[in-house]
């Protein structure tokens, strides 16, 4: 019965009080309104405080004791997972962008090397043609 009680309690917290801090008595009162609810005295917890402390230890809620009683705030695992997935996607996008930049840099470097080797070839051809032209001009005289 403890598991059913815990599931029912967390169902109310996750649906009605997902993003707010709420007094546990408010949640418990809402739970008791259901005619078919599991009674707390049939669970392993003897008090609501003990149950709230258990929920805090199992990281289902953030539990805080105040002058007005115990307050809990639901820990939204789905939101945390969405945030983790968003961060992973952003990291992947950045990795893809970095990869693209590296590819472009390699292409630019290869193009520069090709251009400089073409310039060297042109200079050699130009020198050869100049020496051929000068030797042919001396031969013609």
Characterise this structure.
The chain has 141 residues and is mainly α. It contains four helices and three strands. A three-stranded antiparallel beta sheet has the order 1-3-2. Helix 1 (2-16) packs across helix 2. The longest helix is centred in the last third of the chain and has 64 residues, at 77-140. The protein is rod-shaped and about 110 Å long. The mean pLDDT is 78.
Chart the SSEs and their pairings:
Layout: H1 2-16, E1 21-23, H2 24-33, H3 48-57, E2 61-66, E3 69-74, H4 77-140
Antiparallel strand pairs: 1-3, 2-3
Q: Quick summary of this structure?
A:
With 141 residues, this protein is mainly alpha-helical. It has helices at residues 2-16, 24-33, 48-57, 77-140; strands at residues 21-23, 61-66, 69-74. It has four helices and three strands.
């Amino acid at each position: 019965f403890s598991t059913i009680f815990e599931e029912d309690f967390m169902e109310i917290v996750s649906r009605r009080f997902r993003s707010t801090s709420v007094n546990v008595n408010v949640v418990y009162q809402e739970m008791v309104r259901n005619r078919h609810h599991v009674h707390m005295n049939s669970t392993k917890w003897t008090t609501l405080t003990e149950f709230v402390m258990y929920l805090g230890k199992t990281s289902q809620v953030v539990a805080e004791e105040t002058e007005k009683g115990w307050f809990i705030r639901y820990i939204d695992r789905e939101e945390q997972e969405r945030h983790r997935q968003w961060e992973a996607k952003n990291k992947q996008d950045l990795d893809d962008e970095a990869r693209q930049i590296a590819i472009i840099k390699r292409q630019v470097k290869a193009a520069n090397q090709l251009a400089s080797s073409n310039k060297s070839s042109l200079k050699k051809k130009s020198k050869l043609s100049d020496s051929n032209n000068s030797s042919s001009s001396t031969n013609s005289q």
